[in-house]
């Protein structure tokens, strides 16, 4: 089969190549890929950025997937065959204390589809039955590929809303896929939102976000903002510092973005201003279902974020994603 593969630990050593069709094993199902998005994690692995040394190439990329189950292992319910599904991209062992507390996605033994093991940027892939989320909405596969990243954004804003149960003024820093999705979700849920980005985003992602109805500004022009809450989705140390400095006393800062370099925030600001700083990592099956409901409510809006490419054009798609020229690249076999 065709697959988008990280071939070695050499930066950018990625290609669409022939690989053997995946084999079923106990507890797994075989899924025919219908669409698969590319995300920041794929870009980091493609470039062999710091923090991705643990990858063991060759590995097939792809965790923002949707497809149809075509076969199941003997110990798996055959009712899955023919079902359209999205796989939970990050999952834990299910046995440790962390998993039993309901935090499977932060399990010390967690594994990531398309990074820890072969993923869905291919004609087909195998995945554990327990990772499957049934698709119960009538949407195009390309749009359903947004389920995973939208679920990540949904979890982040849920953390924010749980900390402050009223309509808020919120700044979202970082106009990439997760930041823009957070801003759109917050706006839909009745909060006043301002999406901020770097100067390089002014004519691109910020302009597109403005056309979607979001209020936007460039970092540096937002020094007077004093929101109730802040979502830091850019992975920028200056943006995190601004969030801690400018969020109203008693407010909340949620961080769903990973940092390429470790930030050095002024912790005294948290103490003296009673700022709550919350991490938000990945998502779980319940957020996947919520994300699909959000997609179903306004498919035209979410479709506008897509840039669809063929799987054969996967390397170019990675380059486009790395250049941040579009919001979301989705590959179709």
Give structural notes.
- The chain is an alpha/beta fold.
- It has 2 domains: 2-146 and 305-332, Medium-chain alcohol dehydrogenases, catalytic domain (Quinone Oxidoreductase, Chain A, domain 1), CATH 3.90.180.10; 152-279, Rossmann fold (3-Layer(aba) Sandwich), CATH 3.40.50.720.
- It contains 11 helices and 18 strands.
- It has helices at 40-47, 97-100, 141-144, 147-163, 177-188, 205-211, 237-246, 267-273, 285-297, 299-303, 314-323; strands spanning 2-6, 14-18, 28-37, 59-60, 64-72, 84-87, 90-91, 111-112, 124-128, 132-134, 169-173, 192-197, 215-218, 229-232, 252-255, 276-279, 306-310, 328-332.
- The strands form 4 sheets. Strands 3, 5, 6, 9, 10, 17 and 18 form a 7-stranded mixed beta sheet that branches.
- Helix 6 (205-211) links the parallel strand 12 (192-197) and strand 13.
- Helix 4 packs across helix 9 (285-297).
- 44% of the residues are buried.
- The mean pLDDT is 95.
What descriptors fit this protein?
Rossmann fold, Quinone Oxidoreductase, Chain A, domain 1, 18 strands, 7-stranded mixed sheet, 333 residues, alpha/beta, 2 domains, 6-stranded parallel sheet
Number of domains: 2
CATH topology of the largest domain: Quinone Oxidoreductase, Chain A, domain 1
CATH-wise, what's the superfamily of the largest domain?
Medium-chain alcohol dehydrogenases, catalytic domain
Number of strands: 18
Strand content: 25-35%
For the CA atoms, what is the radius of gyration? 20 Å
Tell me the overall shape: globular
Average pLDDT level: 95
Query: Residue ranges: pLDDT <50 for 5 or more in a row?
Result: none
- Residues in helix, %: 25-40%
Reported CATH architecture of the largest domain: Alpha-Beta Complex
């Amino acid at each position: 089969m065709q697959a988008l593969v990280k071939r070695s630990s050499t930066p950018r050593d990625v290609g669409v190549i022939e690989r053997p069709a995946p084999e079923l094993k106990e507890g797994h199902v075989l899924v025919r890929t219908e669409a698969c998005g590319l995300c920041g994690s794929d870009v980091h692995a493609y470039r062999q950025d710091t923090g991705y040394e643990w990858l063991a190439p060759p590995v097939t990329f792809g965790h923002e997937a949707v497809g149809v189950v075509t076969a199941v292992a003997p110990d798996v319910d055959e009712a899955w065959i023919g079902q359209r599904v999205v796989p939970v991209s990050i999952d834990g062992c299910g046995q440790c204390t962390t998993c039993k507390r309901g935090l499977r996605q932060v399990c010390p033994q967690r594994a990531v589809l398309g990074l820890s093991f072969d993923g869905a940027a291919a004609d087909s892939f195998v995945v554990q039955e327990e990772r499957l989320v049934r698709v119960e909405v009538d949407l195009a596969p390309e749009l359903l590929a947004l389920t995973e990243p939208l679920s990540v954004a949904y979890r982040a804003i849920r953390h924010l809303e749980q900390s402050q149960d009223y309509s808020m003024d919120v700044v979202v820093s970082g106009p990439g896929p997760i930041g823009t999705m957070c801003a759109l979700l917050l706006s839909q849920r009745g909060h006043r939102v301002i999406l901020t980005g770097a100067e390089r985003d002014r004519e691109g992602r910020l302009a597109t976000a403005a056309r979607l109805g979001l209020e936007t500004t460039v970092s540096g022009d937002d020094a007077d903002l004093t929101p109730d809450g802040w979502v830091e989705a850019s992975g920028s140390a200056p943006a995190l510092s601004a969030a801690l400095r400018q969020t109203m006393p008693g407010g909340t800062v949620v961080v769903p973005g990973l940092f390429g370099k470790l930030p050095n925030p002024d912790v005294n600001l948290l103490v003296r201003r009673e700022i709550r700083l919350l991490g938000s990592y990945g998502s779980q099956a319940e957020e996947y279902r919520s994300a699909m409901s959000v997609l179903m409510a306004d498919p035209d809006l979410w479709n506008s974020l897509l840039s669809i490419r063929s799987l054969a054009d996967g390397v170019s798609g990675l380059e486009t994603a790395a250049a941040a020229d579009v919001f979301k690249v989705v590959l179709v076999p």
